[in-house]
Write a sequence for this structure.
């Protein structure tokens, strides 16, 4: 008897032999036992998970001469012919090579003929998503109302490419990726049947390499056996698959714990020397960190897919990392994996990633940081209170300059303090200590006093012309405004309406620049209002001159205007 690969030799013959698709096989068996067989099915899912195998078992059981418990007996003539692929009643079509409308027309003509031996004529179309749009349209009517003796089974790995009109006429079953545990158990069963000795670590490595496909895992198993013979050692499997050993990932976390950058660079040298794929290493490292995160978060390593030996190591290593640290490490690995795809120096990228991971500082929780800031604030406030108390006790009637509080080492001499006190304005503050702010007096940096109302009105036309030369629209609005008075260094302007007032308020800084050029005085401010100044109308004019003068003369108001550039805010009275 000629040799058969493991995937064909150990192909499931019964529904319960299909690995990892219990939700599909149970539904089909119940439909068969209750005589509720549909006329069309579509099986979708990844490669190598049992779609075509399940379709063949379904074809055998509905044509079996002696079915048992909704399973074929695999002994009658119909089952043997279907298993050997020579049955006239089960037609398997490759959708990739028979994708045209002509092939579908031939199929539509052939379905009218009854089955040769069995009860049903089964059409299995693999990779059905490869059919053309015209072919799908030609199949619609036949698929919706086929003869009673016809059953369609479509298999596809890309169900999103199948038109909705086809999907709505079929019962859809989604096949799942097979777990590493199920693949390992299946390979163990095959190894025992073939009398092959292989370790659990080697089987787990093969299952991980298969990425959810049982057919791929069985193919890798054949390849490994051809290389290693009997028995199969874990180290030999690593060699033939060129896979990164799990120990390397634990070494990375050991280097991070020990802050050993030298060890990390030596590990990169080992990876390059052994010919490992750098992106495959980064993918394995990300999975390793993910296992650490799951173990740290749940305090249970049973949720990760690994052997019992490595689960214990994850339990130990997870204690040395916080969740935030692991998340930052995973982000570094993922960013490096994305950048290394286009990098001309992938080794440099990998070295940089490992050194950054090793030198990464531990994260600090925000609540801990806030507690430290609060403690620091209390210490600073306590020190400031002590300083103020000392100053108040020594000189309760004198003012303390702001500069002296900002820089305690400045102004130690008595003469310097007297000079600072003479040129400062005191502000009352709690505790009996006067805090002052030294600076130039009102009237401009050049010593030019604020111009009088007569001077403003005398040179008003020149001021308006200068504004109009630079901004015509502002000059036009300004020419219709009226100079009312000067209050606290601000020129009060009467405007015709809301539009003129808002326009002048938007350009106050521009008007101040032109005023400095025309009148030669800095810090001139313009306060536009609607209408004339009327003490009796608080909605349209400024407040009374006596009230504004009293407010402007207050020491606090003066200090705010001088130090912070504050301006009077005129709010309408809505009482």
């Amino acid at each position: 008897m000629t040799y058969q690969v493991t995937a064909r030799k150990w192909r499931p013959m019964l529904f319960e032999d299909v690995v990892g698709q219990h939700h599909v096989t149970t539904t089909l068996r119940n439909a068969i036992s209750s005589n509720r067989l549909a006329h069309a099915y579509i099986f979708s899912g990844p490669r190598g998970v049992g779609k075509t195998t399940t379709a063949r078992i379904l074809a055998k059981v509905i044509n079996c001469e002696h079915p048992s418990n909704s399973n074929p007996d695999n002994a009658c003539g119909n089952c043997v012919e279907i298993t050997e692929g020579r049955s006239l009643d089960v037609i398997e079509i490759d959708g990739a090579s028979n994708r045209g409308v002509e092939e579908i027309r031939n199929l539509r003509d052939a379905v009218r003929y009854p089955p040769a031996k069995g009860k049903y004529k089964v059409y299995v179309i693999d990779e059905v998503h490869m059919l053309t749009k015209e072919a799908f349209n030609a199949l619609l009517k036949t698929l919706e109302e086929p003869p009673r003796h016809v059953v369609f089974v479509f298999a596809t790995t890309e169900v999103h490419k199948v038109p909705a009109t086809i999907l709505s006429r079929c019962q859809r079953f989604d096949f799942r990726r097979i777990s590493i545990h199920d693949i390992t158990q299946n390979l163990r069963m095959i190894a025992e049947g073939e009398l092959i000795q292989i370790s659990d670590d080697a089987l787990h490595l093969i299952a991980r390499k298969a990425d959810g496909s049982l057919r791929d895992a069985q193919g890798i198993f054949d390849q490994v056996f051809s290389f290693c013979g009997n028995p199969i050692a874990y180290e030999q499997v690593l060699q033939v698959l060129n896979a990164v050993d799990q120990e390397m990932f634990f070494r990375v976390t050991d280097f991070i714990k020990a802050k050993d950058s030298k060890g990390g660079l030596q590990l990169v040298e080992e990876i390059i020397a052994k010919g490992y794929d750098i992106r495959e290493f980064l993918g394995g490292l990300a999975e390793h960190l993910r296992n650490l995160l799951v173990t740290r978060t749940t305090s249970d390593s049973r949720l990760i897919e690994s052997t019992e030996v490595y689960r214990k190591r994850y339990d130990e290593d997870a204690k040395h990392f916080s969740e935030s640290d692991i998340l930052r490490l995973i982000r570094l690995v993922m960013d490096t994996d994305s950048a290394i795809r286009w990098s001309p120096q992938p080794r440099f990228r990998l070295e940089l990633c490992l050194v950054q991971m090793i030198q990464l500082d531990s994260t600090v929780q925000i609540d801990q940081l806030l507690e430290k800031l609060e403690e620091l604030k209390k210490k600073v406030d306590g020190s400031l209170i002590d300083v103020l108390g000392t100053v108040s006790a020594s000189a309760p009637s004198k003012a303390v300059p702001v500069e002296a509080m900002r820089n305690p080492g400045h102004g130690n001499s008595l003469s310097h303090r007297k000079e600072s006190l003479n040129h400062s304005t005191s502000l009352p503050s709690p505790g009996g200590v006067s805090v002052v702010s030294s600076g130039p007096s009102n009237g401009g940096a050049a010593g030019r006093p604020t111009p009088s109302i007569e001077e403003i009105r005398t040179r008003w036309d020149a001021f308006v012309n200068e504004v109009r030369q630079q901004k015509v629209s502002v000059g036009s609005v300004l020419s219709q405004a009226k100079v009312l008075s000067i209050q606290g260094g601000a020129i009060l302007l009467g405007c015709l309406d809301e539009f003129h007032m808002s326009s002048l308020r938007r350009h106050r800084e521009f008007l101040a620049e032109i005023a400095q050029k025309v009148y030669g005085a800095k810090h001139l401010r313009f306060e536009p209002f609607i209408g004339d100044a009327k003490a009796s109308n608080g909605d349209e004019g400024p407040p009374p001159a006596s009230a504004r003068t009293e407010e402007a003369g207050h020491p606090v108001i003066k200090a705010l205007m001088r130090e912070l550039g504050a301006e009077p805010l005129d709010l309408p009275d809505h009482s």
